[in-house]
């Protein structure tokens, strides 16, 4: 088939040839647990070697150590050395490393990403680099998508396989002498994987490059492209030599490879331990022990000596000079900023919106009154802090979600330095962000505030806003350099800003704050910026007013502790803080490395579980039948099924189009039959519509505002037409992604909670037996008490997560089971076990299994009962049994060679080779001919489907097998227990729930306690109540830490019709409210008793009440936005803007708002809580002195009682009425959150 294809040429420059020698290399954890045992190998230059083995065999660990990437917590013994060939005099060689994950800029095209990579890694001429980029695009089969954006979940672009090939190209473009590749074929269809490895072989043999890779499941023809292979099992070497010696070696041990079986699959099975039963575990462990001993004896005759005289080569990373890096990164950043239209417009629109709203709130107050002066001070504080805080949150989000990930990859590759990243970022953002945003905000607010209208005052005002913006941006960079996790980075930024606001002098008088925290104002850049703005506005302001000696402005500055004309020093201080933050962030970027911890095991508190007491229980013979499943065999037939996608895309995935309607045909006239009691496999290359077909028939494709699916055709059960909604009710669906699993639950706990909800009609002991059966059948016994884990806390492997997802769906023993890529990411032995389990399920009466699969093993392919083969574009190439498939293609002249997986062979037949125009033309003609042949055969053999069941039988079948939701009581109890357990194990959630509220109270107590009864205490009391509005942020951040993971898991269960919205929502509130109450009580203790804010029982309980209300309203707002939007960073920015506006409008910073804004305040809980707390803080019996200021010309006090303060500032409210109204507002917030969640999942789904 490939004999007529044309080979491309790659114009790589010559590179030094190097060999790798390894002797007795072992890798251990800090606790001396051995991961890899005494591995030895010798890899000559120009070799292609693969490390294969089952999950947990140590492939990636060994690869990382050889690449000099020893993870934190690991160490190694033995030795390995990279040595030059005799004719290579160099002492440095370039290396490259391909990670398992594809980290790419979503708004760049394939060609642009490769071009930028070449510019960052190569010193060749521009023409040479462009030529190499085009050659790689052709060689890696990226020609069709060369000008397509990489894309992201919201704007899909490249497929997973295309991203993987692009990542390979990024590493190859540096022309490395030695390249390490971790799972390079993950996500690739069989044919693309073959072409990728074939390219590596070409480079190794013709250019002398050495490639060392780990790989899960190499197909047969890939296996024989390799020069050497190492087989690992449980960290031990079972074989490590040339591929040509592998089959004879195992033959001598008595193991022969069957015909049409992939040798790699066969040998991985041979070396793996089968943990499904006690007997199989014992037998396979004994066999592995014999294989280890055989290899240890064999390798004694091999020479792995590493001579001390051999020259050791130092590894170097591909890079260009510093200013060249800056130039490339700057150009790329500018392009990304301009292409991200939504973000770009949002960045420029934000100062307009915030500036206009802030200007409206503080619009030209009467500066001759105390309330007007207070309002101007609040306006200046907002200018010096609010805008900077909001941009700091946005910059933290943008770095964490996008830019820092690409930087970390390029930094690990050695092509980008932290300083170049920092400098290029500031240059790229200077005009359009760093200058434009402060300038727009300053222009709007300066004149709306009614400040001193002269050029000097405006220039000082703008300078301060500009410097605060830069300092806030540098603080965001510092936060992200410390932690890449957005929740932690934003917490660092928020804590820093809390300190800034407390020490600023606006909320608590800087001259009178306790001496042990008074020094903090000198490390608070907002104290300097606020002081500069105050001095700029109030120096020699309001002089010779009636009844007032001197200038009131100067008196005000003196009360705040600021000097007149205090301009130069604070501006320099803010500038220095910005520079200091940048210096520290660059230091952390150099010093701090991102790491993933080892898997965590949780000890079960139960001494024995049912099914584990008797180690010899035969779970394979155990068959728990659920009484609701019918036994009617169902033949599923689809006729004329067509799927078209119409997208209204304002940012097209094609780089040369902008804002258009795109229509794409995904499936074209699919006529197929899926039969019962057998595995029905949907196969095809990437882009053939396999997953789309499965999602369509399962009812999982939902149209949105910008994406509409148009479908035609019918689905029938035994000849009777059925709607897709009814089909969905009787099937279980295992999705391709496992991100919905809860990271802090163990495997057994995950299955146990799922069983309680799905098998609620069974007893506890029956459910436990069912769980034990599944754990054993799915090979999860060894990790049943391990946490599932996530990106930041590693738990079980990706393959194990896939099996857990399958186990959840298999609990109910469904009549129809749909699985999207169930073997993706699994090694060949685990894939065999999974499909073996599915095969056993098929044998039960009335079971139909349909799955999509990339690359089935040969022996499993032959066991498939029915195969639907799709070509690119969603066209059928074949539908029938594997035996019929082989006869059909043989009749067309296509015969499968020996030792070749027949499934791989057929997939190659219908795949198009886009490496060059000649290959594309040849393969396209072949595929077109095959598709036409099948259409002709379908027409010739067309027949009307027969009805094998009556309509009444169908209705009965649907009634019996439709999924029934768990009752409210069952679902509520399970969700409460599950959420409490995940929260208890998550440090972030615990801190969010238990520490944030009292933590804020402690900080406020440090700065405000004790509050006295003098003139200064007036502003301090106002400031303390105003700072309490930060509890709104606390509620939102708590929700961000706890809600998204529970939401995602609930979405999956809701899609499976397990339970409804109400149990989940009330369960979440059950966990939330008691902890919020406890935190609120502690907060009230610090505010009322420690600070001394009117120490009465009434004030204590009113403060506790208001704290609870405002925190939980913040949580409700978090639920609303986290339901409407999926990305947490975007949620934080949206909510922060809303909360910041609500804080400013709470009634204490602007005392002269317009009636419209006061009307809007009636829906803000912060307005009510602030008014309640401020009225309780200034009771009628409060007596105030004025020795420290506030005396009139006749010697009397401006404020003598608490009532005077409230009346002067217009803050007198009915506490009793407000206490009643606020609980109504709370119920409204909670009801809106519930209704939005219910509307998204139930009302607005199409």
From TrEMBL:
It is found in: Membrane. The keyword Membrane applies. The chain crosses the membrane at residues 342-363, 435-451, 458-479, 491-510, 522-539, 566-591, 990-1011, 1073-1093, 1100-1124, 1130-1148, 1160-1178, 1217-1237. Residues 20-259, 643-898 form the ABC transporter domain. It is a multi-pass membrane protein. The keyword Membrane applies. Keywords: ATP-binding, Membrane, Nucleotide-binding, Transmembrane, Transmembrane helix, Transport. InterPro entries: AAA+_ATPase, ABC2_TM, ABC_transporter-like_ATP-bd, ABC_transporter-like_CS, ABCG_dom, ABCG_transporters, P-loop_NTPase. Its main location: membrane. One of its GO terms (cellular component) is membrane. GO terms for molecular function: ABC-type transporter activity; ATP binding; ATP hydrolysis activity. This is LAFE_0B11848g1_1.
């Amino acid at each position: 088939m490939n004999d007529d294809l044309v080979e491309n040429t790659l114009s790589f420059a010559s590179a030094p040839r190097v060999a790798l020698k390894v002797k007795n290399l072992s890798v251990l954890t800090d606790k001396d647990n051995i991961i890899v045992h005494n591995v030895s190998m010798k890899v000559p230059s120009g070799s292609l070697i693969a490390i294969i083995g089952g999950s947990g065999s140590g492939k990636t660990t060994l690869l990382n150590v050889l690449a000099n990437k020893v993870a934190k917590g690991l160490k190694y013994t033995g030795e390995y050395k990279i040595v030059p060939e005799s004719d290579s005099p160099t002492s440095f060689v370039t290396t490259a490393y391909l990670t398992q994950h594809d980290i790419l800029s979503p708004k760049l095209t394939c060609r642009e990403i490769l071009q930028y990579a070449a510019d960052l890694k190569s010193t060749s001429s521009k023409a040479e680099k462009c030529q190499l980029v085009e050659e790689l695009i052709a060689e890696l089969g990226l020609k069709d998508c060369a000008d397509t954006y990489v894309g992201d979940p919201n704007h899909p672009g490249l497929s997973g396989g295309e991203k993987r090939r692009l990542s390979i190209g990024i590493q190859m473009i540096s022309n490395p002498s030695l390249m390490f590749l971790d799972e390079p074929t993950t996500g690739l269809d069989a044919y693309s994987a073959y072409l990728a490895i074939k390219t590596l072989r070409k480079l190794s043999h013709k250019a002398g490059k050495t490639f060392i890779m780990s790989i899960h499941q190499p197909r047969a023809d890939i296996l024989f492209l390799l020069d050497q292979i190492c087989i690992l099992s449980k960290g031990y070497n079972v074989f490590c030599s040339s591929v040509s010696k592998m089959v004879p070696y195992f033959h001598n041990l008595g193991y022969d490879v069957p015909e049409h079986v992939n040798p790699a699959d066969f040998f991985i099975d041979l070396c793996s331990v089968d943990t499904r039963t006690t007997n199989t575990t014992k037998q396979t462990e004994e066999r592995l022990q014999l294989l280890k001993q055989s290899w240890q004896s064999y390798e004694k005759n091999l020479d792995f000596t590493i001579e001390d005289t051999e020259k050791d080569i130092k590894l170097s990373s591909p890079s260009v000079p510093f200013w060249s890096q800056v130039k490339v990164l700057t150009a790329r950043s500018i392009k990304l900023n301009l292409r991200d239209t939504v973000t770009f417009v949002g960045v420029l629109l934000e100062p307009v919106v915030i500036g206009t709203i802030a200007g409206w709130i503080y619009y030209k107050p009467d500066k001759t009154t105390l309330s007007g002066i207070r309002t101007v001070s609040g306006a200046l504080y907002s200018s010096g802090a609010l805008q900077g805080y909001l941009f700091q949150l946005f910059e933290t989000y943008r770095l964490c979600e996008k830019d820092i990930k690409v930087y970390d990859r390029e930094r690990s590759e050695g092509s980008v330095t932290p300083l170049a990243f920092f400098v290029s970022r500031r240059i790229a953002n200077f005009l359009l962000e760093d200058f434009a945003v402060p300038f727009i905000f300053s222009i709007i607010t300066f004149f709306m505030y009614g400040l001193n209208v002269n050029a000097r005052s405006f220039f000082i005002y703008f300078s301060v806003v500009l410097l605060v913006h830069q300092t806030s941006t540098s603080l965001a960079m510092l936060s992200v350099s410390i932690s890449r996790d957005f929740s932690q980075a934003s917490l660092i930024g928020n804590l820093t800003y809390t300190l800034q606001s407390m020490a600023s002098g606006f909320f608590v008088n800087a001259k009178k704050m306790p001496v042990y925290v008074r020094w903090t104002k000198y490390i608070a850049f907002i104290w300097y910026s606020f002081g500069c703005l105050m001095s700029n506005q109030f120096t020699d302001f309001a002089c010779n007013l009636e009844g007032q000696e001197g200038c009131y402005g100067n008196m005000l500055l003196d009360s705040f502790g600021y000097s007149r004309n205090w301009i130069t020093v604070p501006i320099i201080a803010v500038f220095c803080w910005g520079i200091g933050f940048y210096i520290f962030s660059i230091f952390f970027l150099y010093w701090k490395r991102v790491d993933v911890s080892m898997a965590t095991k949780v000890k079960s508190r139960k001494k024995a579980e049912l099914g584990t007491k008797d180690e010899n229980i035969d779970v394979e013979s155990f068959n728990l039948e659920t009484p609701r499943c019918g036994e009617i065999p169902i033949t599923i037939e689809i006729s004329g099924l067509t799927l078209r996608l119409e997208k209204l895309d304002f940012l097209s995935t094609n780089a040369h189009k902008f804002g258009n309607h795109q229509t794409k045909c995904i499936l074209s006239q699919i006529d197929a039959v899926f039969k019962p009691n057998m595995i029905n496999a949907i196969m095809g290359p990437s882009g053939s519509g396999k997953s789309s077909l499965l999602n369509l028939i399962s009812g999982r494709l939902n149209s949105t505002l910008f994406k509409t699916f148009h479908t035609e055709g019918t689905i029938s059960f035994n000849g009777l037409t059925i709607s897709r909604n009814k089909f969905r009710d009787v099937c279980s669906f295992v999705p391709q992604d496992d991100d919905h699993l809860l990271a802090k639950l163990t495997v057994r706990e995950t299955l146990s909670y799922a069983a309680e909800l799905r098998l609620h009609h069974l007893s506890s002991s029956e459910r436990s037996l069912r769980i034990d059966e599944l754990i054993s059948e799915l090979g999860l016994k060894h990790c049943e008490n391990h946490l599932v884990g996530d990106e930041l806390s590693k738990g079980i492997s990706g393959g194990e997560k896939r099996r857990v997802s399958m186990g959840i769906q298999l609990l109910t023993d469904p009549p129809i089971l749909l699985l999207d890529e169930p073997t993706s990411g699994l090694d060949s032995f685990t894939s065999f076990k999974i499909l073996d389990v599915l095969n056993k399920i098929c044998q039960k009466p009335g079971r139909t299994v349909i799955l999509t699969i990339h690359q089935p093993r040969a022996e499993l392919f032959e066991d498939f009962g029915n195969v639907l083969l799709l070509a690119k574009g969603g066209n059928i190439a074949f539908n029938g049994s594997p035996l019929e498939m082989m006869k059909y293609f043989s009749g067309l002249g296509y015969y499968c060679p020996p030792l070749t997986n027949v499934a791989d062979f057929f997939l190659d037949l219908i795949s198009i080779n886009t490496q060059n125009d000649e290959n594309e033309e040849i393969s396209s003609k072949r595929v077109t001919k095959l598709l036409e042949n099948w259409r002709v055969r379908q027409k010739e053999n067309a027949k009307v489907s027969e009805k094998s069941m009556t309509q009444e039988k169908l209705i009965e079948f649907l009634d019996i097998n439709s999924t029934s939701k768990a009752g409210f009581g069952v679902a509520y109890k399970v969700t409460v227990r599950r959420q409490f357990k995940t929260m208890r194990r998550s440090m972030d959630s615990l801190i969010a729930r238990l520490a944030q509220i009292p933590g804020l109270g402690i900080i406020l107590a440090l700065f405000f306690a004790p509050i006295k009864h003098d003139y200064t205490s007036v502003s301090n009391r106002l400031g303390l109540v105003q700072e309490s509005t930060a509890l709104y942020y606390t509620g939102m951040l708590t929700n961000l830490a706890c809600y998204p993971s529970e939401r995602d898991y609930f979405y999956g269960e809701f899609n499976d019709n397990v339970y409804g919205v109400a149990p989940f929502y009330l369960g979440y509130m059950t966990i939330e409210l008691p902890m919020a109450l406890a935190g609120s009580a502690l907060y009230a203790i610090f505010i009322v008793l420690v600070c001394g804010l009117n120490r009465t029982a009434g004030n204590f309980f009113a403060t506790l009440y208001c704290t609870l209300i405002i925190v939980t309203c913040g949580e409700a707002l978090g639920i609303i936005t986290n339901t409407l939007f999926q990305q947490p960073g975007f949620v934080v920015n949206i909510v922060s803007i809303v909360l910041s506006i609500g804080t400013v409008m709470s009634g204490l910073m602007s005392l002269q708002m317009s009636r419209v804004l006061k009307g809007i305040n009636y829906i803000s809980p912060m307005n009510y809580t602030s008014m309640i707390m401020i009225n309780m803080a200034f009771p009628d019996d409060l007596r105030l002195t004025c020795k420290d200021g506030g005396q009139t010309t006749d010697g009397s006090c401006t404020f003598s009682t608490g009532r005077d303060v409230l009346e002067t500032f217009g803050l007198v409210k009915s506490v009793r009425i407000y206490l009643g109204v606020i609980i109504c507002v709370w119920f409204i917030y909670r009801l809106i959150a519930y209704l939005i969640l219910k509307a998204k999942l139930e009302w607005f789904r199409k």
